[in-house]
Structure formats: C-alpha cells, structure tokens
Design a protein that fits this description.
membrane (chains A, B), SLC26A/SulP_dom (chains A, B), homodimer, about 60% helix, 27 helices, 2 domains, alpha/beta, Transcription Regulator spoIIAA, about 625 residues
Chain lengths: ~625, ~625
C-alpha cells in the first residue's frame, strides 16, 4: 500500500494496454513538437545555454512519470520559473558562464530537495501562504517583465535592467541601434505566431480539415517558425550580418552532472530555491487538479511534491535547470488524449532524439525567433481584467495583489512575492484580530439569547453576557482583553461577566494568558468571570490549567443556566465565595436545579430585568 | 475632543490637586532612587557610556507624561530593549565609540518615528503578531543572554560571544584570570541585592517598621550598593588595582543632539528599530493595561504608540537611547501611589538633578556593581515553569516558544523573534487551513441537518450537503477544493452538491476562485453546485461576481429549502437547465413553495432516502 503511494507508477503500469499506448504516443508527439522550441527559449530566458533546456526535458520527465500522481501534467522548463532562475543566478555569476551553469544545477538540486522533503513531511499546506491574488499578480508582473526583457533580442540591441522601468528606459535609448534583419525576423515570427494562434485552427476547420489535423498544425506553428527562420538565416548567411543565433550546440544525450557542494553558494540560493519550489508547486498543482477533475481523477498534493522534487533532482544530475509542471503544455497533453504519465516518458524520448540528432541544425536558429516564442507564450499569462475584478470584489485582496505587482515590477521577483505574502498575512491577521462579538440578552420567556443591539431582549445591570464569534488565538487575544474591559467600563454596576463560547473552537496559549489576565483584572475590579457553552475539546484542555483553578466564577453548560444561577442570588447552590468549578460536574448540578421549561420566565423569582432594549 | 485624544495631558492636568501632587512626588522619589542605578546599568548593557542612560531618563519621561495614556507607566531604559540595542549596534560600530553613540540616536529616532506613525495609522494590532509564547520565550532567552553577558564584568575578565554557547565557552577559558577584587565587589553586591530583595522587607516588618518605610528601604538597596561600592573603591583606590570603574562622566543636563541622516545607516537599522518598537510596545502596553485595570482605568493602545514614540523621539534629540515602559519600575510607581503621569515628569526632574550634581561621584562606581544590578533584575524575567506549562497546554504553542528560545540563544535576538513569529504564523495557518467540515443529513421528520457521522440522519445518494465550519480564505481555499472533490469521489451517484455556509463570515478572493474552480470541476463531472444559508454581507459581495452567474445551481436561503427542492424532481419550480440564481428572489420563491411545517417529512413525495446512518 505504502509503496504504491510513494510510487504511483505501480498504480497504472501493470494495467497498461495497447490502446492507452497509442493515445499516449500521439500526445507525446504533439507535446515534443511544442517543447523543442519552448525548452530552448526558456533556457535562454534563464540565461543558460540552449541545450540546458533540452537536457531539462528528458530525465525530469521520466522521474515525474515514476513519482507523480497527475496523469497528464507536462513537466519541464516553464517561463515563470526560468525568470526566477535568472533572477536568482544573476547575483551569483555572469549569465552563460560555467559558474552560472553550475549554480543552475545547485538551484535545481536545492529545489528538488526542498520539494521532496516537503512532500515527505506532508508540508503541502505551506503553498497556502500564496493566495490567489498574490499568485495571479505575480504571474502577470512576471509576464510583463519577461516580455519586456525579450524585446532587446527582438530588436537586436543591448539593454538590461533590474526592473521594468530600467528595462524600458534602456530599450528607449537603443531605438536608434535597432538591427534591421533581426527585427524583421523577430517581428515576422511574432506576427506569424500570433496569427496562427488566433486564426489558424478556425480557418482550417472552415476549410473542412479534421479537428485533429487542425489542432496539430496549430500546435506545430512554433516549430515551423523555428525551421523557417533557421533556414532563412542559414541560406542568406544572416549570422554573418549580425543576426544573433543560438550557435553550435553539442549533440548528444544529457550529460551526467554533479552539482557543487559549496556551503556559501547553497546558503545564497536557499531562499530563491524555496520560492521557486513553492511557486512552481502551486502552478503545477492547480493545473494538475483542474485536468484531473475533468476526468473525475484525483491527485495527491503531497505526492506531487515528491514527483516534482524527483524531477528537479533528475535535472540537477543531468545538466538541467529547475523545472515544474507547465500550464499550456499540460493542457495540450490533456487535449491530445494523454492517458498516463507514460506520455511524459515518451516526450522525454522525443526530446532525447532531438538532442542527439537535431542540435547541429539549431546552430543557425535566430535568437529573435526564440524571443518571439517567449513573448507570445507569456503574454497569455498577463491577466489585467483580474486586477479590476479583484478591486471590485475585495479591497484587501486587491491591496495584496497590487503590492505583489508593484514590487515585482519595481524591485524583482523575490521581493515581489515576499511583499505579497507578507501583506496578505498581515491583512488576514488584521481581519481576524477583531472578531465579531456581541453583548447578548435573553429573548423574553425563552432560553434563547441574542445581540442586545439587534433584538429586544432582557438584560440585568449587574450581569453582562458577551458572545465571541471566533476561535481565540494570539491575533485576537488582546482584542478580547480590550473588549471585555470596555464592556465592563460601559456597564458600571456589573458584578458578573459571562463569556459565551459556543463559537470558540480553539483557545491557544496566548488566549489562555489573556483569559487569566481578564480574570485577574476583573477580580481587581470586583467583578466575577464565568464561562458558558465551552466545547468539549476546549474544556478538556482548560481543565489542566491554573486558569481553571483561579477562575473567580463558574463554567456553565449553557448560557441559560448561567442566567438563572446568576440572577437568583437566593439560590442556595450559588455561593458568595468563588470556588474552582469542577467544570463538568458543577454546572450539571446547576442545570438540574434550574427550571428548564422553555416558556418559563425567571422574572418573578429574581432581580427584575431593568432594560428591555430594542433596535 | 480630538485634541484631548492626542494630548492626554489635557485630561488630567486641569484637575490637578494638591493631594495628587503629594502622592505623585512620593512615587517619583522612590522611582528616581531605583532608576539612577538602572539607567546607568542599562546604558552599559547597550554598550553605551553610562551618562546616556541618565539622559534617556529625563526628556523621554516628560514626553510620555504629555502624550501617554497610562497614569502609572514608568518609561526609560529597560533591559530587553537595551540588549536589542546592543545587538543592533554591534554590527555597525565599536561599542562606546562616537559612531556607536550616534547610531544609538538614529535607532531611537527610527523607533520613535515607527511608533508614532503606527499610532497615527492605528496599527497597534501589528503587535498581535507576537503571541504570548513567543514573547515570554523571547524574554526568558534574553534574560539568560543578558545575565551570561554580565558575568564577565562580575569576574573582571575579557570574554565575548555572539550567542550563549560562545559566551559561556569564552568565560570558561578565562576562569584562571578572574580579578579577585572585582569578583568580591560583584559577588558581594549580588548577595546583598538578592538578600534584600528576598528578606529585607519581611524582616523590617517583623521588627515593627511601618510598611511604607520597609518598602522604601527595600527599593533603595541598589542605590545603597552603588554608594557603598563606590566609596570602597574610592577609599582603597581599587581602580588603580584593576577594578573596572565607570570613569568620569560629564556633569550636566542632557545635551541637545541631532541624529545623523545617513540613508545607508537608516536602512541597516530599520529592521532592528521595527523589532525594538514592537517588543517595547508589547511589554509596555501589557504592564500599562494590567495596572490601569486595577483602578478600573483604561489605556488607549494606539495613543500609547504615540506616547512611546514621542518618548523615543525625545531620547533621539537629547543624547539618549531607545526607551520603553519598564515592568518593574512601573509596578513600583503604581505601588508607591502615583496618580498621574506627573509622577513621571517629577522623576525626570530627579534624574536631571542627579545628572547635574551626582555624576562626579559616579566616576568610582565599579562596573561589577552595575553588572550585579543587571543580573538580579533580569533573572526575575526568566520564567522556566512557563515552558513546561505551555508544553502541557498546547504542543504547537510550545513549538513556537521553543523555536524562539533556541534561535535567540543560538543565533541572536533578531532572528530569534523572527523565527518565533514565523513559526507561530505558520502553525496558525496550518490549523485554519484544515477547517472542520461535515457531510450533513436530515434529522428525520424535521428541518434540522446534522453530521452523518454523529447522528442517525436521512441522506439521498444523488445529493451531498457539505457544511464548512470556518470562514473561507486563502489558507483553506485549496483544502475546500480537495474536500469537495473527495466527497464527490466517495459518493459516485451524486448529482447535486450543496455547500451549507452558515459558519462562513467571509469569502475572500482566493476562496472565490476556489469556488469557481469547484463549480467548473463539478460541471465537468456532471454535478451541480448549490449554496445554502449564505450570510447577507457575503451574498452582497458574491452577487457582483461572475461566479454567481456561472454557478450551475442555486443559492438557497436554508438547507431545508435546498433539500426539498433537490429531492423533488417533480417540483415545477426546479428547472433542468441551470440558470443564474437571482440569489435573493429565487430561493425566496422556493421557500414559499415548500411545505414548512417542521414535522412534515418529504419521504412520500420524493426519492426515498436510501441510507439512514448512525454512529
């Protein structure tokens, strides 16, 4: 059982059938055609030699096929993770240098270790730190940065910058130096890719082509662009005239590599690896879950961590770079009919063949073509309408999203995502730090108690019953102290305060200290503190504490029993001296002594309720 | 009104009376006697010249008297903040150097600005980030570090270290070099202070001394120790024999100082200033609130931020160091009968006189005496039993406390407090990320619905009603997706899922996206999603969203109306095609069409409930 959990391949491989094989193979062909240009492009985006992208698309796919739980997720280099890789490595070494390539291996290794350990420790919930607005703001901002960064390749100029503004200013300065041939190739590719993506499929369908063929041709557009621009560059020897090309790439399967074990470098890259891991995991899991749900399948987020972790470890030991599950390729894989992770393994074989045989042809591939591929791919990530929708729905969510976008664009990917996470946590704490609470009174003639501000209910001047509608924990512990003291100050004749705890699922140590403080402060002021409706598990814990012994009042089973006991000073069971309540027994004895007919009113027996407020 | 809020002095000064004056003056005398040695000692602890401690005890006290809301809080240098000051400045300059003293002014200035701005922006809730276990763990660890750090002054040896282990190893190496005279002075002071603190008051009371006198004499013990050891050192010229003394201090009132405006230094100190501000604020507010409650007074936390902020600004411009409200001195001030913040202003006058007249006498004060004063003061902060109590009460709170103590002792104060805050947030998110939820069924013959695992209730195989007992926000949004999909997978015949939202106070943008995702996934699987019991404010927001239009099912006013509508396929009002529910109107029309007698069972009319589960 456990072996199957950690090796999901055992769940599908034994039942693998010829029919499944056919479908998986077809999906693999389509994904391979799409992945070749993308892997080259994303390696370039990460500042790495083009072949690294190919290497990262072989063994990692096999590793995920063994350890991953999604049947259709397409793993490999993706845009956002490549951008984060470039940002992390940019501080360490010069892009393209040997140290830089080595650092990419270390980053993949760290990312792999982090993901695997998180999976084994079942820490998938950490991804919850990233709220949807932060994620989508981050991806939109990343898309803009990536697109802006690629413009220089498209224009054939030199320009760089650490943020969007610097990048755009740098580009502006270089407008006079645009390299015409490069620009024409880039612009042509851009227009071609945009048109095919937008219109080709519909046009082919209109012409009566089968849906399958139309789809395949549309997906093949990038590789057609690669082939055509490479041929043109080679034929007209454009590389001699200054068109930047990918250059010669070693032909061969991914090499066996060993990431460096330098403590200083590991420390420098740790934070980046953590962020890359979490962002990659969130992206991957959300597409994986969406696709799995369409076929009523399920994926296991913690095993997904192990699957993605093993893919990154495989990348680290085979000359690769950080990888994760890509959105667009996974959707293509799903639509093409992939049935099992074997499709991923077949894709790996396809890329392996490409690395062996096609690399000599890639030498003349213009960098501008890859830049155009990247721009088209990432602009689909930019989602501006969601900014408006988020603003309309919730201003605090908008604030977190806006902070993420602004800091990412202005200061870089790492600080952007940290700013978003920090702000969304702060806003959440702010919201739960002031939980709804209400002074409640008795609905006349019943055992029900309601908010005095909303209902016409009975109250007694020496008794205040406060209901708190939230678990008590450190973020609202001090607010509770404040609220109780305020209520007591407002009601100067009060002798008894009852906290009605029906909505309290947890009392943590901070809230316990606050309850102790409240108890002591009320005692100093001559007021007795009682609790009512404490839930079983909460009471179990409270009983072990000093608070329970020091509590000046009682723990009542219900608000009504508190009402009856405290409004009947003549009741023999209610002693003047406060004693430690044996919480489960004492209130029970109260309960058994109070009249429990719902219609009965205690008015006649007790102190006359003085106000009956209404809204 | 607003002027009075920001200038609390206007609330008490106009009514100031002779009787109050007498009490405030007496309290001020006692606190002054206590504060003179403490201010010198805490300046030393912060690595600053002794006179800085005196300067920080004059104008800041006056500023707090004007802007603070606590009537009895005694502001000035305190142990933990001084330790944090030393930790922050240690990276910037050599202790005691002119840069170091200048950096302390900048730290006070930043801390003053942060506190004041937080107060004006009403950000007092940020202190909620610090849970009680983190605070008490931090203070215990700080106390141990401070005490260990002072041992070298007590022994007259050189030893330093960045954490407790290094400190103790350093001290161990120096055991052979102990300076006998210094050690005797230090040990003597330690024993004297400990004995007087422990036994003097009781002994005096037994001898028939009035309580007032006994108390005053006990409080005066540190200043007696200072006087006696200074005299002994001066008389025997012990400073010539290697006993470290405070040395000559300029006599005079606090100088006017201008903190440097160097951007780099500000950036370096910003984080430290933020932590010092928050820790100081939390400490100060908790003692202030406790004392205020004893007299049924209240303090305003946001105005307290302004009060403490102005005190730190005053320190920055009068040659001081970061200050806050001290625990022990405030209690003494309260017990001595201080009635208004004027007591603090009188204390400032006392310290001013001391700075003018007494400084020449302090030159022969042995450093070991101050070290003994500090050790006695901080050891009362070390609270080991609370560690055990926290472990017993809550393992997750213990984890946060333990992380704080371990990292503070092992790696320093700043990383210690950050580790504690980070871990307590993570554990809180972990807890709320898996809220309680239950599949509910109908209590036979009623309109009530209960957990199918706990009660014997009716269910229908094509209908699943899920109740979630928590607000929906980013931390549990994905868990909700998981839970719904799991429930649907377990119940293969399900056609309708109803989310019962009576416990949902908020749906944030992340949870909204998750609801959209759930809606789409269920749609792909041929299942309709409905909501029930959505609260008014939540519904108001949902109605503006695309989700409400895309929802495949309806929003029902109550779970019961959902049950009736969905188990009655013959009901004409229930269309086959899902349409956008006009949330407030449609369910109402349902409501008006379903039988609402509580006793009625729909069994006869509708599909037969198939299981009636019981626990």
């Amino acid at each position: 059982m456990n072996v199957k959990r950690y090796l999901p391949i055992l769940q599908w491989l034994p039942h693998y059938q010829r029919d499944t094989l056919t479908r998986d193979l077809l999906a693999a062909v389509i994904v391979t055609i799409m992945l070749i240009p993308q892997s080259l492009a994303y390696a370039m985006l990460a500042g790495l030699p083009a072949e690294v992208g190919l290497y990262a698309s072989v063994l990692p796919l096999v590793a995920y096929a063994i350890f991953g739980t999604s049947r259709t997720l397409a793993v490999g280099p993706v845009a956002v993770v490549s951008l984060m890789t470039a940002a992390a490595l940019g501080n360490i070494a010069t892009p393209g240098s040997a140290e830089y390539v080595g650092a990419a291996l270390v980053l993949a290794l760290l990312s792999g270790l982090i993901l695997t350990l998180m999976g084994l420790a079942r820490l998938g919930f950490l991804a919850n730190f990233l709220s949807h607005p932060v994620i989508s703001g981050f991806i939109t901002a990343s898309g803009l940065i990536i697109a802006a960064g690629q413009l220089r390749h498209l224009l054939g100029v030199e320009a760089s910058g650490h943020n969007l503004v610097e990048l755009l200013i740098g580009l502006g300065r270089e407008v006079g130096n645009i390299h015409l041939a490069t620009f024409l190739i880039g612009l042509g590719t851009l227009v071609f890719l945009y048109s095919t993506r937008r219109w080709l499929k519909g046009a082919l369908l209109n012409l009566g082509a089968p849906a399958m063929v139309a789809d395949l041709l549309t997906k093949a557009a990038p590789i057609v662009a690669v082939a055509v621009t490479t041929l043109v560059t080679w034929g007209f020897q454009l590389d001699q005239q200054g068109v930047a090309v990918v250059g010669s790439i070693p032909a061969g399967l991914p090499p066996i590599s060993l990431p460096g074990f330098e403590v200083g470098l590991w420390q420098e890259l740790l934070m980046a690896a953590l962020l890359i891991s979490i962002v990659g995991f969130v992206e991957s899991v959300s597409v994986g879950q969406t696709l799995a749900a369409k076929r009523r399948q399920r994926i296991d987020p913690n095993q997904e961590l192990i699957g993605l972790g093993s893919a990154n470890l495989a990348a680290a030991f085979s000359g690769g770079m950080p990888v994760t599950g890509g959105f667009s390729r996974s959707v293509v894989n799903f639509d093409a009919g992939a049935q099992t992770p074997a499709a991923g393994a077949f894709t790996a074989v396809g890329i392996g063949v490409a690395a062996l045989l096609l690399t000599p042809l890639i030498a003349y591939l213009p960098v501008a073509t890859l830049a155009a591929t990247i721009i088209i791919a990432v602009l689909s990530l930019v989602d501006l309408p969601i900014i408006v929708r988020t603003w309309r729905y919730s201003h605090s969510d908008f604030a977190a999203m806006f902070a993420t976008i602004a800091v990412t664009l202005g200061n870089g990917v790492e600080s952007g995502i940290l700013a978003g996470v920090g702000l969304s946590l702060a806003l959440h704490l702010y919201r739960t730090s002031r939980p709804h609470s209400a002074v409640i009174g008795r609905v006349p003639g019943s055992e029900h108690f309601r908010n005095v501000e909303r209902y016409s209910v009975e109250t007694v001047p020496f008794l205040c019953i406060l209901r708190v509608d939230e678990s008590l924990y450190f973020a609202n512990a001090r607010y509770l102290e404040d609220t109780v003291m305020e209520v007591v100050t407002r009601q100067p004749d009060v002798k008894h305060v009852v906290l009605a705890c029906q909505a309290v699922n947890v009392i943590d140590a901070s809230a316990l200290e606050s309850l102790e403080t409240i108890n002591h402060r009320l005692q100093d002021a001559g007021v007795t503190l009682h609790l009512a409706e404490v839930k079983g598990p909460v009471m179990d814990r409270l009983q072990t504490t000093a608070f329970c012994k020091e509590l000046t009042g009682f723990v009542f089973l219900s608000t009504y029993s508190a009402w009856v006991a405290l409004t009947q000073p003549s009741n023999a069971l209610y002693p003047e001296q406060a004693i430690c309540p044996q919480a489960t027994s004492l209130p029970l004895s109260f309960e058994s002594n109070v009249p429990n007919s719902p219609g009965l009113t205690v008015k006649g027996v007790t102190a006359e309720p003085v106000h009956t407020r209404s809204l």
